[in-house]
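Researcher: We're teaching a course module on how sequence relates to structure. For the next exercise, students receive a sequence and then see the predicted structure as tokens, so they can try to spot secondary structure elements on their own. Here is the exercise chain.
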Amino acid sequence: MEQEPYAELFLIDKPFKWTSFDVVRKVRNTLKIKKVGHAGTLDPLATGLLIVCAGKMTKQIDTFMGQEKEYTGTFEIGATTDSFDLEQPVIQVADPAGISLSDVEAAVKELTGDILQIPPMHSAIKVDGKRVYESARKGIDVKMEQRPVTVSEFEITRFENPTVEFRIVCSKGTYIRSLARDLGDKLGVGAYMSSLCRTRIGEFTLAESKNLDNLIEEIKLRSDENL
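Model: And here is the predicted structure for the students to work with:
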């Protein structure tokens, strides 16, 4: 009987400070095949659900990437950074002491629904064939165009000034760091993203994912058993 072409999908909890490609490379090297890719980048300082596809399953990557995403995390108001997260040094903007929960909720309401968003300069988007974060690291300004995105849910789960805890459900292409920047602009005190976790992609949840080290050991064990 002819063997079925290899196809596998992995749900991985991306480790803190790993790039999405670091995870892909680890899985690729362990499987010893070239066709491995991920369905949606997570920044190095973000954690949470990363879908990794191997073999024939890589044909489904675009389908997974187009699905709705859910995130939880924290914003800090009163300051910002050039990347709108902790990859760049924190810059104090204004004292946020006068900002109330109702102020935050009013600003969040304006950032919910179908909105136009400018992606951050420190992102993997290509402009004129180059990743914009490469230009940003060289101090070169690149004009970023507004893009339509959908933020279907933007819930403040806790507010203890200056920390804003949130849960966001959004469309493909939404930058949570840009929402941090825009929230800070609307409040007039600046803001940046201090933590982020992707909890869902479509029907796949973080609860179903595996620790990367444990997954790698499972793959190795499976390979040994097939020898």
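Model: If you want an answer key for the exercise: The longest helix spans residues 212-225. The first strand starts at residue 7 and ends at 14.
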